[in-house]
Amino acid sequence: MNKSIAKRVYDEANYVINTKNTVREVAKVFNVSKSTVHKDLQERLMELDEKLHSQIETIFKEHVEIRHLKGGESTRIRYLKLKEG
Question: Which of 10, 11, 16, 29 sits in a 20 to 30 Å window from 46, CA-based?
């Protein structure tokens, strides 16, 4: 694996662990696509550091568990704005 890619993978992983941000938010910060972040943290990180990968997996499972709540809140806010406007 290219050293620059490995560095990006570690940087993304540490960023997720420190901030608990989603793949979408990480992609914006690192100026790469969501697909790249997903591949970095799911596949490439497993090859580099299994312990770090398991920490990322735990965070992503939390994201999956609460995504329906975030989606519902976004929808509620959107309809409130439409009602006001």
Answer: 29
Give the Cβ contact number of residue 6 at 10 Å.
Answer: 16
Give the residue numbers spanning the domain of 16: 3-84
**Per-residue pLDDT tens digits for 7-58:** 999 999 999 999 999 999 999 999 999 999 999 999 999 999 999 999 999 9
Reported pTM: 0.79
The number of domains in the chain is 1
Q: HSE-up of 9 (CA within 13 Å, CB side)?
A: 21
* Residue pair 11/26 in contact by the 8 Å Cβ criterion: no
Q: Find out whether 47 and 1 touch, Cβ atoms under 8 Å.
A: yes
Contact (Cβ atoms closer than 8 angstroms) between residue 36 and residue 26: no
Q: How far apart, in whole angstroms, are the C-alpha atoms of residue 69 and residue 65?
A: 9
